[in-house]
Amino acid sequence: MAASKGAAIFILSGDIDSLTFDFPKKPLYSLNMDIQNRLLEQLKAKLPHDASLGRILMEDLDLSRDSAYRRARGETALKPEEIQHLCSKYELSIDKIIGITGKTVVFQYNPIQRGEFSFEGYLNGILEGFRRMTAQRSQKLYISNLDLIVFQLLNFPPLMRFKLLYFAKCYLMLPSLQEVKFHKDWKEGISNEHLNEILQKYIRTDSVEVIGFEAGKGLVREIVSFYELGHFESREDALYLLDEVLKLCSHLREQAAIGRKFIVNQPVVTDEGNFSFHLHQTYLQDNTFFAETNAYRMLYITHNMINYLYTIDQDYVNKSFSVFQTMLKSCALISGENQRMRNGFFEQLENFVQKAKDRISQNELF
């Protein structure tokens, strides 16, 4: 089956190409409207944030405006061949739509290939996900992460740029970046405006976030190893990044203290309780992001460092969300309360950053 542009299919088991659509061929066949609504909700979750469902149906099914919008509103049933066409084109899971449960879960992923990767394209994928989510009437994020939440790095653009360069240079090994060395003004087409638009949407979206007790240390280790591999222009540039990590710690602590996210050095404009920040006191097994709206709940799982898989399989997503909620009960809330634990976490992280600075200061590489 052909994948839509910018996406590919990952199937945990089974083969979607082997599915057949054995619908009744009766002229007056009418699909249960609850099932049709589920299909259209899955479809909307995959469309660009500014796409019109009615117009999509007009173009894809070659319908008149009235016929398309009647289907979009649920006033007219989709025909079997229309269902098959939509499921095939947009890679919708028909078995999940009609309520068949099993051991197969369909994920989409953002294909990253050495010859095609661009920082702009990667960030556009994240931004489109936020646009799609914030276009709904209500939205909320639930996140569990081994390290600091990557969206918080957007408050300090050099940290986000470093993270992207580290991935592209050390994991993708892009030939165009092999001679590139990081310095504090390095941008490579990653504009502040682009990063700020993602940050604005993240800040204004209510979130429940869980990080591991070792969070932040992974980022610090990446900076140190990048320096020791000779990938910084100077020692001062590496020390500058570690100072940015200290600023990030301070800013994150301020947000946790009031339970509200805000952009660094800007007024607080979010509602009370916008930021629920938790500390997992042992070890998180994976990085998981749930995007919940009035229309759907979507699950993202990170892989290959900063890439991601995602699914809207509601049975799988809801079961995974139940596990998240159970895990949350064993975590310590450090936003708005638990000041001693909150300060203890950030103090040990700040001490770790200082040790990294000492190591780099004493290491004569340049």
Blueprint (SSEs and pairs):
Blueprint: E1 8-11, H1 33-46, H2 53-61, H3 65-72, H4 80-90, H5 94-97, E2 106-109, H6 119-134, E3 139-145, H7 157-171, H8 192-204, E4 206-212, H9 217-228, H10 235-258, E5 275-280, E6 288-293, E7 297-303, E8 307-311, H11 314-328, E9 332-333, H12 339-361
Parallel strand pairs: 3-4, 4-5
Antiparallel strand pairs: 1-2, 2-8, 3-6, 5-9, 6-7, 7-8
Low-confidence region ranges: 1-31
Count of helices?
A: 12
For the record, the count of structural domains works out to: 2
> Helical percent range?
40-55%
* Main β sheet profile: 9 strands, mixed
Total DSSP E strands: 9
Radius of gyration, whole Å: 23 Å
Judging from the principal axes of the Cα atoms, what is the shape? globular
Structural class: alpha+beta
Task: Report the average pLDDT across residues.
Answer: 84
Order of helices and strands: EHHHHHEHEHHEHHEEEEHEH
- N/C terminus separation: 53 Å
Side by side, the strands of the main sheet go 1-2-8-7-6-3-4-5-9
- In quaternary terms, these chains amount to single chain
